[in-house]
Structure formats: structure tokens, C-alpha cells
């Protein structure tokens, strides 16, 4: 038998062994397939930044035709669910006890000042604890107020002169649906989990049990061990990715404006980076508990917070922005959001893919280096 | 008591194990505290101003001068817009047409077009909000300057409890809950599984100790480490991140104690179900991720579908987050928070008794 054929046989045996190991342990399958489904369902249905049914207290101290035209504007808005009060005290109590999220207060002189063209004030209080929601609530209240102002002026027979009218056009997501940007980002999160977390724990278990050393004294080369270990998890991870994409497209109706080929290639590249991180962590940690913890802190959490998945990178403090360049998920999230929502925009895709390629080489190289050093 | 000490030593004996108990929470605290914010600063803007009038220049100056935005480029061709947005060089392009000032002077009004990158829909909405505030301020001042009447009615906006609407005030108290939860669950979720893997758990069961005693021994490290690290993060939130603490610290600690007990219960339950450490770890993870997502930590529970909202009632972190934010920002005391104490107590009792029962009944 030629040396090449022998090498191939060894590799095949190793891959077969690893695959069997995955198939025997239901928890690996669980994390590769059940986790994506659970996470996607949770995020797709559970996590939404689009406020709806905001509970609002409308305080009308002196109800008449003018105030009812404004309150009905709030009743008709789909964003609000409103309760009417006639004095401010119970409404304030409702705000403190979380019964409502905001108050719109029309004082007794509202109509009089409105009719006399006197810049009638409308008091608006929102619960500012959740600053993001507070801003969005204020934005919706402003929207209702502006629409009402125009309708009211027209009804009075004169056109309302708004000096400058803002005309926003939101590209790529005209309906401003948060699912469309959360679900693609989530794919990065899921692949980080399957790639880095699972690999690091499984390989750490081999170190813990001493089977890794046993493997090393066989004639198998280190790169063969690496390939043999990684290939089954690569396939597992890509399976999870395909499942997530299918769910994104057909369950959550996220558009895929770029090409599927680009998406798959980028995902394969990121999967290699994640596997490299997993392998590196396991060779450093060598115990499952430590490996799991490091994987959580070094891969999953940064992928969640520092990748631009939810939080805007350009608004972070400068040192944190520099740190985000070390997080592989950052590049993959940019690729995903662009391929899904904007299309194949090559300048974005190529620069981010190049960064991923560099990281892959570094992580796999380091992991290999560490493994060899331990044997000496 | 001896068992409690033994359990604590089991957690602390490994040097790497000790490090992973202390370093990650601190790292996460800073990461979250500084990076996790919905507030937008220095958003890159491109300006396409075809108008030469003073009014258009004033509006542009107001946008660029705001702390939320900074000028990335002035452009002079319509074609440049799409590449700047597509390539993520800028998040918005402000476009004022050639007749902006003329139409403004002639009346009844003019328009300012703004193109926003919607790839992150939340950012797009917030940017739109910032811009409309700037434009409406401009309108009020312009009307005043040109002797035009003000709008018939105007909004006087105010935010309670967090008047500047700083995201950090919302996120950092949440981190106290999040990290306490993660540490406590991780420490306990491996404790039974580790012994099962080593085979020493069966030995423990044949000693004269009652399940309740084993339960107390097993809970001890989780409760101790959880409260110590929880208190540390609390101190950091108050003194490092300067989050105002307006309510009673006692009310907060009642909540923290009940919360840690329920997290210990959940961790021990997972641990008794698991046969190997890996399964314990995965189980803890499979529980923690949804529990964090559904707790209201980053996105409001009120936005979730009704069925998912029902699920959140079983999540102890949900209650603890309300308590933390209530005590920090809204100045709550223990009588207001009663509603949120008892569900955690119920969760703790149920999960701890289940765990004790599982000690004996889960033999492979």
C-alpha cells in the first residue's frame, strides 16, 4: 500500500470515529440542531424592538370637541392602548406602578389656548427607565401629534404651514421590521455556539480523559488529527446553518437579496474560524468546565454584544470599537446583514471575508502550534 | 456543615476553575457596561446640499453639530448616495434640493429628504427620531425669526426616572441580575454531575445523610459565591458606573437572596438530571439563553407575543430585573416589590424540592 493510501485510510478511520462519537452523544446533536431551532423561534417571535400596544394614560381635564379630536387620534393609532383619566394624580400613580408607560396631559385651558392660536402645551411624560423604549414611545407620540395637527388645521379651513417637513426613506427595510435584522445576526450567534463552544468542550474532554495523548502516540500526524476532529463538526455546524437559513426564509419571511452561494461560502469561512477558536480554547483549557467558561466569555458573549448584532458599533466608546475588530463575529454579522437585506455588495463582502480569512489562519495556526508544543 | 465546606473546596480547588469564576464576570461587566447601549453617538452622515441659501446651511449645521451625528462627507452627485450607504460608509444621507431656501421663504413649506440605512431597524428608527427633533426645533426657531405664528399646540416632552434617557442606567442594573444568574447557575449545575461522573455521588447517597442535608451542602457554594459576586457587581454599578441608587438596599437584598435560591434550585435540578459534566453544562446553557432573552434584559417583555409573555412568568430573572431597576431608578421599597418577591420564592421551593427528589430517583 502506498504511503498516501495509508494516510487516507488513517484519516478516514479517525473521521469515522469522531462521527460515531457525535452520533452516540445526543447532547452534541442537540446543540447543533435543537439549539438553532429554539434560538430562532425565541428571537424570531420573542424578541422584538418594535413597540406595539404601548399603554398610555390620556389625561383630559376638560373634555370637549377639541380634546376629543386629539384623543381619538391616539385611540386610532395601532401603537397605543390608552386609558382616559380626568385628573393627573391617578395617571401619575399609574405611571409609577407600571400600569401605563406614558402620560399625555391636556390641561383645562388646552382648548381655549388652541382656539386663540396660543401655542397650547401638551404635557408628555414617559417612563424613562428603558431609555430605548422611551425614545421610541416619544417618537410615536410625536407622529400622532403631527398628523393630528395637520388634520385639525385643514378642518379649520387653513393649511398648516410646516416650514420644513422631514421625508425619511429607510432603505433595505422600509417596514422597519426588527426581525429582518435580528434573524440574520442570530445565524452568526448560532454558528459561534456550534463551532466554538461544542468543539472546545468535546476536545477538552479528550484531554481530560487522556485519549488525546493516546491518539498522539499513534502514527497519525497532527494535521490529520485536526482535520479528523474538525470535519465532522464542520458538517454538523453547516447543517445547523442551513436549517437556520431555511427557517429565516420560510418561517420569518426574511428576504434574501444576495446570492445563496455567497451566503454559503461566507458561512463556511466563519465556521472554520469558529472551529479554530474552539480547538485553541480546548488545547489551552484541557478541562471541560474551564473550556466551556472560556468559550462562553471569549466567543459567545462578544458575538452577542460586540458584533453589531444588536448594538451599533459606531456608537461604542473608541477603545471598545478597537476591540470589536478582534471579534470574528463582527465581520460575519456585517456580511450576513448585507447579504440578506441589501444584496451582494462586493466592497462590504470582500473586506469582511478577508478579515475572516486572516483570523482563520491565525486561530488554526495557533491551535496547531499549541498542540505540538505540549507533546515535546 | 462539613459537606458544605467540602462542596466549596470542590469548586475552588482548581486554579483555572477559580480564575473562570472571577475573571469572566468582571470582563462581562465592563463589556456590557460600556458596549451595550442603544444610545447613538457620532453617526456618520453624508450631506448632499444642492441649495445655497442660509436656511439650508443652518439646518445642516444643526444636524452636524448634534452629538449624535458627525459629517463623513459632503457630496455633489446623486449617484454617490447609494455607494456610501451600501458600503456602510455612512448611516444616513441628508439631501436638500436646489429650491430648499426659496420654497421655505415662499411658503407653505419645503421638504428635507433623508436616506437611512435600514439594515439595523432599531438604529434607523432612533436616527429618524433624533432628526425629527432637530427639524422641529429648527421649525420653531425659523417661525419665530420670520414672524410666523407658532404651531397651534406643541409637545412638552419629559422622561421620568431617567430624564436624559441614558441606556446605561437601564442596562447596568440589568447586568447585576444577569451575572449573578450566570455565576450561580454555572457553579451549581456542575456540582452533582461532577460527582456522578466520578462515581462519588452514589457513595454520598449511602451515607446516613438525608437528602435535605445533601441539598443544603450542595446549595452552599452557589449561594455564597452568587451573593459575593452579586454584591461586588452591585458596588461597581453604584460607584464605577455612577448609577443612582434611589430605593432601599434592604429591599434589593431580599430580592437578591430569593433570586439566588431560585437560580440554585434550577442549577441543581439540571445537575441532577445530567449524567456527565458536559450534559450539565449544555443543560445550563440551554436553560440560561432563553431565560436571559425572555427576562426583559434587552428587549421589553411587552413587545413579545402573548404566549411567550406567559412563559416569562416562570423566569426568575424577570422578577429580579424589575426589582433591580425599581430600586435603582424608581426608588422602590420592599412593600411595593412584594408582587415580585413571592413568584421567586415559589420557583425556589419547587425547583429545590424537585432537585432533592431527583438525587435519589435518578439512578442510571
Average residue-wise pLDDT of chain A: 85
User: What structural category characterises the helix and strand content of chain B?
Assistant: alpha/beta
Shape of chain B: elongated
Physical arrangement of strands within the biggest beta sheet of chain A:
2-1-3-4
Structural class of chain A: alpha/beta
End-to-end distance of chain A, in Å?
30 Å
Amino-to-carboxy terminus distance of chain B: 28 Å
Question: Helix tally of chain A?
Answer: 14
Low-confidence stretches of chain B: none
The largest pleated sheet of chain B is described as: 4 strands, mixed
- The outline of chain A comes out as elongated
Number of helices of chain B: 15
| Domain count of chain B | 2
Beta strand count of chain B: 5
Q: Show unreliable segments of chain A.
A: none
The share of residues in helices of chain B is 55-70%
- Number of separate domains of chain A: 2
What is the total tally of β strands of chain A? 5
Beta-strand content of chain A: 5-15%
Strand fraction of chain B:
5-15%
Amino acid at each position: 500500500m502506498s504511503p498516501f493510501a495509508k494516510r487516507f485510510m488513517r484519516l478516514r478511520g479517525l473521521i469515522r470515529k469522531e462521527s460515531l462519537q457525535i452520533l452516540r452523544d445526543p447532547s452534541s446533536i442537540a446543540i447543533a440542531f435543537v439549539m438553532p431551532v429554539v434560538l430562532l423561534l425565541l428571537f424570531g417571535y420573542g424578541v422584538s424592538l418594535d413597540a406595539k400596544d404601548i399603554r398610555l394614560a390620556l389625561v383630559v381635564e376638560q373634555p370637549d370637541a377639541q380634546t376629543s379630536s386629539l384623543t381619538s387620534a391616539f385611540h386610532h393609532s395601532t401603537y397605543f392602548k390608552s386609558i382616559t383619566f380626568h385628573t393627573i394624580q391617578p395617571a401619575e400613580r399609574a405611571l409609577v406602578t407600571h400600569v401605563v408607560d406614558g402620560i399625555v396631559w391636556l390641561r383645562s385651558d388646552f382648548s381655549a389656548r388652541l382656539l386663540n392660536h396660543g401655542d397650547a402645551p401638551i404635557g408628555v411624560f414617559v417612563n424613562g427607565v428603558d431609555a430605548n423604549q422611551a425614545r421610541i414611545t416619544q417618537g410615536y407620540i410625536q407622529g400622532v401629534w403631527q398628523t393630528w395637527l395637520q388634520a385639525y388645521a385643514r378642518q379649520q379651513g387653513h393649511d398648516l404651514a410646516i416650514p420644513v417637513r422631514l421625508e425619511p426613506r429607510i432603505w433595505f427595510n422600509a417596514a422597519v421590521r426588527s426581525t429582518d435584522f435580528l434573524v440574520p445576526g442570530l445565524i452568526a450567534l448560532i454558528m459561534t455556539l456550534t463551532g466554538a463552544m461544542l468543539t472546545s468542550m468535546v476536545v477538552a474532554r479528550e484531554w481530560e480523559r487522556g485519549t488525546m495523548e493516546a491518539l498522539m502516540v499513534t502514527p497519525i500526524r497532527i494535521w490529520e488529527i485536526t482535520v479528523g476532529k474538525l470535519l465532522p463538526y464542520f458538517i454538523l455546524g453547516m447543517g445547523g446553518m442551513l436549517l437556520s437559513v431555511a427557517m429565516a426564509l420560510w418561517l420569518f419571511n426574511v428576504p434574501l437579496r444576495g446570492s445563496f452561494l455567497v451566503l454559503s461560502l461566507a458561512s463556511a469561512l466563519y465556521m472554520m474560524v469558529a472551529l479554530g477558536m474552539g480547538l485553541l480554547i480546548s488545547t489551552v483549557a484541557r478541562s471541560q468546565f474551564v473550556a466551556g467558561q472560556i468559550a462562553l466569555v471569549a466567543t459567545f458573549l462578544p458575538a452577542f454584544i460586540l458584533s453589531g448584532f444588536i448594538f451599533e458599533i459606531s456608537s461604542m466608546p473608541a477603545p471598545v470599537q478597537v476591540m470589536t475588530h478582534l471579534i470574528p463575529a463582527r465581520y460575519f454579522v456585517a456580511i450576513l446583514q448585507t447579504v440578506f437585506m441589501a444584496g451582494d455588495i462586493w466592497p462590504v463582502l470582500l473586506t469582511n471575508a478577508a478579515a475572516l480569512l486572516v483570523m482563520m489562519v491565525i486561530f488554526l495556526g495557533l491551535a496547531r502550534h499549541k498542540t505540538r508544543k505540549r507533546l515535546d | 456543615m462539613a459537606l458544605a465546606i467540602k462542596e466549596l473546596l470542590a469548586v475552588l480547588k482548581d486554579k483555572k476553575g477559580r480564575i473562570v469564576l472571577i475573571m469572566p464576570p468582571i470582563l462581562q461587566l465592563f463589556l456590557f457596561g460600556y458596549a451595550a447601549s442603544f444610545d447613538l453617538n457620532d453617526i456618520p452622515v453624508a450631506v448632499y446640499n444642492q441649495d445655497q441659501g442660509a436656511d439650508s446651511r443652518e439646518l445642516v449645521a444643526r444636524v452636524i453639530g448634534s452629538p449624535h451625528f458627525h459629517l463623513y462627507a459632503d457630496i455633489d452627485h446623486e449617484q454617490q448616495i447609494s455607494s456610501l450607504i451600501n458600503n456602510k460608509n455612512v448611516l444616513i444621507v441628508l439631501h436638500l434640493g436646489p429650491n430648499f431656501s426659496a420654497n421655505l421663504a415662499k411658503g407653505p413649506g419645503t421638504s428635507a429628504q433623508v436616506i437611512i440605512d435600514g439594515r439595523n431597524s432599531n438604529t434607523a428608527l432612533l436616527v429618524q427620531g433624533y432628526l425629527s427633533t432637530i427639524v422641529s426645533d429648527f421649525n420653531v426657531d425659523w417661525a419665530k425669526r420670520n414672524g410666523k405664528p407658532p404651531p397651534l399646540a406643541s409637545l412638552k416632552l419629559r422622561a421620568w426616572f431617567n430624564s436624559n434617557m441614558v441606556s446605561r442606567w437601564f442596562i447596568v442594573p440589568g447586568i447585576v441580575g444577569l451575572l449573578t444568574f450566570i455565576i450561580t447557575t454555572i457553579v451549581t449545575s456542575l456540582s452533582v454531575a461532577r460527582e456522578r461522573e466520578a462515581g462519588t455521588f452514589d457513595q454520598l447517597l449511602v451515607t446516613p445523610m438525608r437528602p435535605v442535608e445533601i441539598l443544603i451542602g450542595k446549595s452552599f457554594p452557589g449561594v455564597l459565591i452568587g451573593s459575593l459576586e452579586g454584591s461586588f457587581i452591585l458596588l461597581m454599578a453604584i460607584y464605577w458606573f455612577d448609577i443612582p441608587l434611589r430605593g432601599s438596599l434592604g429591599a434589593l437584598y431580599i430580592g437578591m437572596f430569593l433570586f439566588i435560591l431560585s437560580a440554585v434550585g434550577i442549577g441543581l435540578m439540571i445537575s441532577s438530571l445530567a449524567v456527565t459534566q458536559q450534559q450539565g453544562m449544555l443543560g445550563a446553557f440551554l436553560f440560561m439563553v432563553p431565560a436571559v432573552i425572555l427576562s426583559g434584559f434587552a428587549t421589553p417583555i411587552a413587545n413579545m407575543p402573548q404566549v411567550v409573555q406567559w412563559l416569562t412568568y416562570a423566569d426568575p430573572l424577570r422578577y429580579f430585573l424589575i426589582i433591580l431597576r425599581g430600586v435603582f431608578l424608581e426608588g422602590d421599597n420592599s412593600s411595593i416589590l412584594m408582587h415580585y418577591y413571592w413568584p421567586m420564592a415559589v420557583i425556589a421551593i419547587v425547583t429545590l424540592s424537585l432537585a432533592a427528589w431527583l438525587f435519589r430517583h435518578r439512578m442510571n
